[in-house]
Each structure stands twice: as C-alpha cells, then as structure tokens.
Specification:
The structure is a single chain. This protein has 170 residues and is α+β, with helices and mostly antiparallel strands. The strands form 3 sheets. The chain has a 4-stranded mixed β-sheet, with helices on both faces. A 3-stranded antiparallel β-sheet has the order 1-2-3, with no helix packed on it. It has a 3-stranded antiparallel β-sheet with strand order 6-5-10. Helices cover 22% and strands 46% of the residues. The chain has 2 domains: 32 residues, no CATH class; 134 residues, Nucleoside Triphosphate Pyrophosphohydrolase, CATH 3.90.79.10. InterPro entries: NUDIX_hydrolase-like_dom_sf, NUDIX_hydrolase_dom. Its cofactor is Mg(2+). It holds the Pfam family NUDIX. This is NUDIX hydrolase.
Length: 170
C-alpha cells in the first residue's frame, strides 16, 4: 500500500492514502501492521492454556489466547515462538485454522490463528514489558468467560470460536 507516511513507529506505521470511489476523492489514514498470530493451545481434548496480561491501552488485565506480532518470520514460526514465550509450552503440532482482519476499516493487520496440540512444558520467556500469568481452563469455561465478559478481546473470542467450529471441539 502506498501513501504518505505520517507516523513511523516500532510496531506499525500510519499512512495517508488517497483513494477515489465514484469520482469522489478522499484521504484515509491507514495503520500498516506486519500481521500477527493467535494460538489456541490444548493441554488435552478439553483443557486450554490461556494468559492473563496487563494491557496498557485499556489499562486492564485481560484473559487472552497467546498471541503476538510477526517479526520478519512466517506466521507458523511466530505462533511457535509466541506460545513458548508467553506460556512456557512448545507444541508437538501447530495447525492453521483460519485468519481474519482485526479492523479492516483502518488497519492492514491480518491475524493468523493456530491450534496447538501435544504441548510440552519448557518454561516461559516473557518479554521485559510483559507481565503474564498462565492459566488453564476447560473449553466450556473459556466460553463462559466470553459470555460473562472476562474474555473481551476480539482475537481471543474469534480464535476460540474458530477452534470450536472448525475442529468439532464442543
């Protein structure tokens, strides 16, 4: 995507894009993001590994699936890296189950979703700016957290739903 860069950041850039629809020209601000991954890790057929993490933007601790931003790597490599960094587990198998745009009205961020199985404990390696607590719960308990509002971020809700729908997990 081409346009005038108005902000260059560590995680993303913002550009002004001039477009035309029906003869009307307009400028849109677009967040150019490298993409990200979300991982739904299963310890067993029904037990999940989730993380509790403080998120500065919303000033809250959120319950989420492990996730992270692509760092000049393939999405599957990123999924394996983020799973181990955030939870201390490696996956015997990683299967891509979908992808979606998080906010296509203003961002290019594409989220790749993976199912992780046959987990093996290795030890977490959180980044210095991350305060993460690993939790485990059943699949139904995770959906109860969605219903009750304890899990409220879009990527986790979508990733859990894809895992359930596409893999017959509940």
């Amino acid at each position: 995507m081409r346009g005038e860069t108005v902000y260059r950041g560590k995680l993303f850039d913002v550009i002004h894009v001039v477009d035309e629809v029906g003869g009307v020209r307009f400028v849109k601000e677009v967040v150019v993001h490298p993409g990200a991954v979300a991982v739904v890790p299963f310890l067993s057929e029904s037990e999940l590994v989730l993380v509790e993490q403080y998120r500065v933007a919303v000033r809250e601790v959120l319950v989420e699936v492990p996730a992270g931003t692509l760092e000049d790597e393939a999405p599957e490599e990123c999924a394996a890296r983020e799973l181990e960094e955030e939870t201390g587990y490696t996956a015997g198998s990683l299967t891509k189950i979908g992808e979606f745009y998080l906010a296509p009205g203003y961002s290019t961020e594409l989220m790749h979703v993976y199912l992780a199985k046959n987990l093996r404990k290795t030890g977490s390696r959180n980044m210095p700016d991350e305060k993460i607590r690993v939790i485990t719960c059943g699949l139904e308990e995770a959906f109860e957290m969605v219903r009750s509002g304890r899990i409220r971020d879009a990527k986790s809700i979508a990733a859990l739903s894809l895992a359930r729908l596409l893999n017959g997990l509940g």
